[in-house]
Amino acid sequence: EKGGYDHFMMKEIYEQPNVIKDTYRGRLHANEGLIKMAGIEDNIDKFINAQRILIVACGTSWHAGLVAEYIFEEFARIPVEVEYASEFRYRNPIIGDKDVLIAISQSGETADTLAAIKLAKEKGAFVFGVCNVVGSSISRETHAGAYTHAGPEIGVASTKAFTTQITVLTMIALRLAKAKGTLSISDYHRYLSELETIPEKVSEALHTNDSAKAIATVFKDATNFLYLGRGYNFPVALEGALKLKEISYIHAEGYPAAEMKHGPIALIDEQMPVVVIAPKQGHYDKVVSNIQEIKSRSGKIIAVVTKGDEQVRALADHVIEIPETSDAMSPLLTTIPLQLLSYHIAVMRGCNVDQPRNLAKSVTVE
Ligand code: M6R
Questions:
Q1: Radius of gyration of the chain from Cα atoms?
Q2: For a substitution probing ligand 1, which of 102, 343, 363 has the most ligand atoms within 8 Å of its CB?
Q3: At CA 302, angle to CA 247 and CA 250, rounded to 5?
Q4: 156 CB under 6 A from ligand 1?
Q5: pTM of the predicted model, to two decimals?
Q6: ipTM score
Q7: Is there an atom of ligand 1 within 6 Å of 111 CB?
Q8: Among residues 227, 208, 216, which one has the least CA distance to residue 323?
């Protein structure tokens, strides 16, 4: 049932190239320049006329929401706010019939997310679900939606749900960009073709498994980790830290790299591993200077870089290379080595990777 892998988590990490393909199959038609998603087509006016999109979710799904915020605003120029469902539901939120609420949930059963949906509906918003589990409570409670088609996710630590959620949300953003004319025709086509190459690049990113494992042996006894990223990769830093916390019980924090100097830099010494997401596309030069700041304080740098990178390699203690892609699609690749790193550290520490202590796969109570 684990397909030859020791744990469901590893199986699910390795399923990502295929499930991302399953997610866009029949929807993404790069040659024709089309994205076809029934839930969007049927409600396209609601999205185009939305004065704002609100995204609610919890945990990893909330991180996917944060990536989507950057993508929607960049591609479709619609203002987006992302909120923890648990906060949204209890703060008398300002939301009405000009707003679209997108609820993201792998299980479709998360109590806080479900409650946020009910509240948004009462206030007249159009509610769209991005769920993995077909027929789940959230998929039934929403006005429309799009499934992620990741297949069953058994490991408590979410992996393939995250990348397929980002895939669905990227397709929605591209469809809206087309309708609104907010991307140039050439960029639109370029992104469609790029998305089509992602499964292959994820397969290549999975080749980082050996380096992730080697790095894990060096840092498995660390008591703290910092994860830094900027732009589209800021949420990936949060997700990398969450993955490490929940399965290895090592304290980890994710930060937007530039926030470091506003506090967390005080934590850096020769004992502190800092995972920096530094792909070539994106705020590369800025991230390089953040890396220099860590180095001058003797922090141990583990950098995720684009294949062929030399500048960061010269500064970092360890590098993990991933294939090149556009800035907006890089989270789909940068996430992979971070999943693998947490996995190996957790296994080396003897943790129960698939069923970490105190955690449930679906959080059906608030
Ligand atoms: O099923 P959901 O996507 O609504 O679940 C949300 C969170 O409970 C979930 O992502 C949790 O944070 C995972 N254990 C993260 O790996």
A1: 20
A2: 363
A3: 25
A4: yes
A5: 0.98
A6: 0.99
A7: no
A8: 208
